[in-house]
Amino acid sequence: MKLFSSKATFVSMLLLTAVFFFNSCITVKLISDYDELTDQALHDLQQRTATYFVTLKRDLNDEDGTANYDDYTGFFDKAQIALNTLKIRTGAIEKNSIVQQQVNELASIFDNLEKAHKIGFQSAEAITPPLSSFNTAFTAIAKLQLALKRGNENP
Amino acid sequence: MATIDVQEVFKNMLAAAKGVMEANWEDVKPYAEQEFKNLSENLQLIIRLRAENKITEEQAKLYLDIHKSSVKIVLLTIEGLGILAVEQAINAALDVVKDTVNTAIGFVLI
Fold it and tell me: Could you report the predicted ipTM of this complex, rounded to two decimals?
């Protein structure tokens, strides 16, 4: 049995295949698409972290000047849950190794902050370096997320 | 008190990033300069707080690790912005091919 009834049909099929192939290749993606869930989760985590530092600073500036780690375990638990969720989400997206590495570094920052808090902070000034590092990290992450939107092509 | 040359650290960080991002350096330079300046100052603050005994030695080490992670995150963003710039250039070139083919053939083929 002949697969194509005529030479013209065969050429048409070939042309359609070529057009389809070229169209599918016309936009090159070297890095993952923007993912709204990832961006939102990172934004929520940034807000919770900002709240943590505001509360911590107030507690350290109080009369007794203490900020017991035990009063902050809820924050660290929620942050760890959010980061685990983010690790799974970012790992499931293609060409997403840069965002994945950023989430891993962020998890490391939270881990080290928790260890530093367990030791105990002596003053509000003592929390300035990690606060600055967090601001730098979250700004960098947000900058890449905004760029990944590629002019709202895939928001 | 132990001190560091913030300007020197800043210059070295910039030089390292420029080496990696040579092709797209001009695009990311303003962002990189601002962030590396902040990071250099933060490093100096950690050293001062430890020297004044306002943080423990263990906390200073943890702060340095936090600092290193934030530097990595900034460098990853710079790398990502560079990849996006390359992607944009490739797609712009492909658009030219698309326009050329469509114009030559007289209808919208691709």
Answer: 0.83
Query: Are B67 and A129 inside 8 Å of each other by CB?
Result: yes
How many domains does chain B divide into? 1
Q: Which of residues 28-87 of A touch B (CB under 8 A)?
A: 28-31
SS3 labels along chain A: CCCCCCHHHHHHHHHHHHHHHHHHHCCCCCCCCCCHHHHHHHHHHHHHHHHHHHHHHHHHHCCCCCCCHHHHHHHHHHHHHHHHHHHHHHHCCCCCHHHHHHHHHHHHHHHHHHHHHHHCCCCCHHHHHHHHHHHHHHHHHHHHHHHHCCCCCCC
Chain A residue with Cα closest to B87: A30
Instruction: Tell me whether residue A61 is in a domain.
Output: yes
Instruction: Tell me the whole-structure pTM to 2 decimals.
Output: 0.83
Task: Print the domain residue range for A61.
Answer: 36-148
Cβ of A102 within 8 Å of Cβ of B110? The answer is no
The answer to whether A125 faces chain B, any CB pair under 8 Å, is: yes
CB contact under 8 A, A113 and B42: no
Kindly state whether residue A91 falls inside one of the protein's structural domains: yes
Range of the domain at B58: 6-85
Structural domains of chain A, count: 1
Chain segment A15-57, per-residue pLDDT in tens = 666 666 555 557 888 999 999 999 999 999 999 999 999 999 9
pLDDT digits (tens, 9 = 90+) for A47-102: 999 999 999 999 999 988 889 999 999 999 999 999 999 999 999 999 999 999 99
Question: Which chain B residues contact residue A29 at CB under 8 A?
Answer: 87
